[in-house]
Amino acid sequence: MTANTYDSPAPPRPAASRDYGDDGFFQRLLRRLRDLLIMGVAGPLTGACAIVALHFALGGQPAQVDIAAEAARQHEAERALAILEDRWPGTARGSLPQATTAEPAPPPGMPELTAADFRAVEPTPEARHMADWVVARHDNGRMPFMVLDKRDARLYVFKPTGELIDQTPVLLGAAHGDDTYPGIGDVPIDKVKPYQRTTAAGRFVTRPGLDADHTDVVWLDYDAALAMHRVINKVKSERRLQRLASPNPKVRRISWGCINIPIAFFDAYISPVYGKRSGVTYVIPERKSFAEVFERTPAGAQPMVASTETLAPKDVAQR
User: Helices (DSSP H) in the chain: which residue ranges?
Assistant: First the structure.
C-alpha cells in the first residue's frame, strides 16, 4: 500500500441501477436471492453473472447493471464477512454472539498455532515476541487482536488465531513514555503539556466508539481519551499525512497520544471489525521492560468481556 492511499479514502464506486417491476411474490423472492449473492454466497464472477440474470428476470434493462461495480461490492462484502467469521469461529454468517467471557471452541480441523504467523512480513523482534506471547498463552481470549510496536511506530492486525492480516505505519504520542497521566482525558487539548503526550503501554480490551462529530473511533482507554482513529490533519503545520509516509519511526511521533491510522487501512481493517465489537490491543512498552508491563499479572486475569455497545461520543480533538 503506497503513501498515496493513506491520504484520502478510496473514491466511491458507481451504484448499479435497478428496476424490479411489480413487487409481487416472485419478484420479492428473486430480489432476496440477488441480495444473498451480493452478500457473498457465491464468488465475485459467478455472483455477478447471476445478478445480471436475475436482473433480467425482474424486468431490468442490461444497460442498468454495472457488472464490475457489483463484483467489487461483492468482493468487499466477502472480505468483511471472512474477517468476522475468522474472528468468531462457529458463528453463523451475518450474526454476532452476545457479550461473553467464555472462549469459543475453534472450528473442527482448525490447527492451533503455537506462535504468531507473520506470513511474508518481517517484524521487529519486539513485535514478534509480543505476538508469539499472545498466541502461546491464548491471552486474547479468541478475540481479534492488534500489536502496536511503539519504537517502530507500526501496527500489526491479527486474526484471533494469530495469523497476520496486515500491518501499517501509524502516528503516536510525541512524548516517549509508557504511562497515562492521571486525569489526562479531561484536560483540554491546549492545556496538555508536551511531556504528557504519551501513548500508554499495556493490554487494552477495545470498545467501539464515536468522536464528538460521530465519526467512528476505537477506544483503548475511554477515561484517558486514548483511541485509535483515522489520521487527523487539522493542523497543517504538523504535516501528519507526510509523516505517515516517512520510513523513519521518529518522524511519526507527533500526536497527543492517540494512534492515528492511515484512512484506507482504518476503513479496510479496523472499522469493519473493531468498530463493531471488542478486540484486544497490545501496546509494547518503549521504556519499561516487557515483564514489568505484561508478566506481573497472570495471563487472562483481566476479564475478557466482548461488547458490541458503542460508547458515548467523546471529543478526541487533535489527539
Answer: 4-7, 25-36, 44-57, 67-87, 125-137, 240-244, 263-265, 290
DSSP state of 171: B
**Annotated domain spans of the chain:** 10-87, 125-295
Sole residue written with cell 497472570? 298
What's the residue count for the chain? Answer: 319
Contact predicate 171/243, CB 8 Å: yes
Q: Which fold has domain 125-295?
A: L,D-transpeptidase catalytic domain-like (2.40.440)
> What does the pLDDT look like over 238-291, one tens digit per residue?
999 999 999 999 999 999 999 999 999 999 999 999 999 999 999 999 999 999
Contacts made by residues 182-191, CB under 8 angstroms, sequence distance 24+ = 184/224, 184/225, 184/257, 185/221, 185/222, 185/223, 185/224, 185/225, 185/226, 186/225, 189/256, 189/317, 189/318, 189/319
How far apart CA 108 and CA 272 sit, in angstroms, is 26
Strand runs (DSSP E) across the chain, as ranges?
Answer: 145-149, 154-158, 164-169, 172-173, 202-205, 207-210, 216-221, 226-230, 253-255, 259-261, 280-284
Chain position carrying cell 509523516 = 243
Cell reading at 52: 445480471
Asked if pLDDT for residue 65 goes beyond 50, the answer is no
Cell of 48: 455477478
Write the CB contacts of 7 (distance below 8 Å, at least 6 apart in sequence).
241, 263
Distance CA 78, CA 38 (A): 9
